[in-house]
Specification:
154 residues; mainly beta; six-stranded antiparallel beta sheet
Length: 154
């Protein structure tokens, strides 16, 4: 059961590819698992365009996802123990299949989305191989830059 230590994973600026579905962050819980506390994305598009779909998902079949290994940062206190969770950002190979938990449409022109989870109703992942991810889907011709984060408790 996750506790009250809070960590965050952020991406570097990523230029989104048009007509693409791609993961921004993939969290792999350690022991005792994790509970998502907040997610956010923002875009720097310079003109109005079709929205970017953002999906929060749980991995159904892992496969062999790859990306940049990222160590979660200690969010609430620099004296926290090191997190047991690990993360990939800017994935270059996706999980085999996912279950979409939530989706949002975000404007690429000045688009900003942030959501804090409701206490005791947070999306969670057990330590038994579950993963939580955040991905985007763009329309043809939509290529803004973007950044994203996921904060979690363990």
């Amino acid at each position: 059961m996750p506790g009250s230590y809070v960590y965050s994973v952020t991406t570097a600026k990523i230029t989104l590819s048009a007509s693409t579905t791609k993961s921004l962050i993939l969290l792999a819980p350690g022991t005792p698992g994790l509970r998502l506390t907040e997610v956010g994305v923002s875009f720097d598009g310079s003109t109005a365009a079709q929205g970017v779909q953002i999906d929060l998902y749980r991995v159904a079949t892992l496969g062999s996802p790859t990306g940049s290994s990222t160590t979660p940062a200690k969010l609430t206190d620099e004296n926290l123990p090191s997190p047991s969770a690990s993360a990939l950002t800017a994935l270059t190979a996706e999980p085999t299949s996912v279950t979409i938990l939530r989706s949002w449409m975000v404007a690429p022109f000045g688009g900003l989305f942030g959501m804090q989870e409701v206490l005791d109703r947070e999306v969670g992942a057990a330590s038994s191989g579950a993963r939580l991810g955040l991905r985007y889907t763009t329309a043809s011709g939509v290529t803004p830059g973007g950044v994203a984060y996921m904060s979690f408790a363990e």
